[in-house]
What we know:
The chain is of the alpha/beta class. It has helices spanning 14-27, 58-65, 69-82, 84-94, 107-111, 115-122, 141-152; strands spanning 2-7, 32-36, 50-51, 98-102, 132-136.
Amino acid sequence: MKAIFIIGTAGSGKSLLSANLFDYYTKNGSFVGVLNLDPGVENLPYTCDVDVRDYVDLVSIMRQYDLGPNGAMIMASDLIASKIDDLQRDVDNVNPDYLIVDTPGQIELFAYRTSGPFFVQNLLLNKKREYFYMMVHLLPHQLILFQWHFLLHQSNFD
Ligand SMILES: Nc1nc2c(ncn2[C@@H]2O[C@H](COP(=O)(O)OP(=O)(O)O)[C@@H](O)[C@H]2O)c(=O)[nH]1
Ligand SMILES: [Mg+2]
C-alpha cells in the first residue's frame, strides 16, 4: 500500500485533488482508497472509503466542551491521533494499492501540532511502512520551510 498525503492550506484544493487522483488512479487500473481526515468538512467531491467523521464529530465537540468552531477544530485535530487504531483498521479492511489521505482543512492544525506528524508516522506502521509518499501543493512561500521540516521529519518516504 502506498499512502499519499495531500497537504495544503485551507481552500487550496486538497479535496478536489484527492477526487481527481482517485479518478486518475482508478482509470489506470489501480485500486484506490480515500481517507478523509477533515472532521469539519460538510461536502466532499468524492466518496470516502474511510472517514474520520465516523469517529470525531465537530458539532458534538462544540456542544460537549462548549467550544466555538475554531477551538473545536483544534480539539478535533488532536483527537484524530487518538483514533488512529480505528482508522488503521478501516484502512486495512479496504486494503487499497494507493491510499489517498485528504488532510484537515487547516494545515496549521495538522502540520504544526504533534498530532499530525504522529498520525503520519504511525499510520501503516504495521505494514512496515511500505512505500509511503507525501505530496504538497499550492504552498505560499512562507509555509515552505515549515512544510519541509514536516516532511523531513518523516523517515519513511521514497
Ligand atoms: N478554479 C479552480 N477551483 C478549484 C481548484 N481546486 C479546488 N477548487 C475549488 O476551490 C474550493 C476549495 O477546494 P477544496 O478542494 O474543498 O479545498 P480544500 O479545503 O483544500 O480541501 C472548491 O470550491 C473547489 O471547487 C482548481 O484547481 N481550480
Ligand atoms: Mg478539504
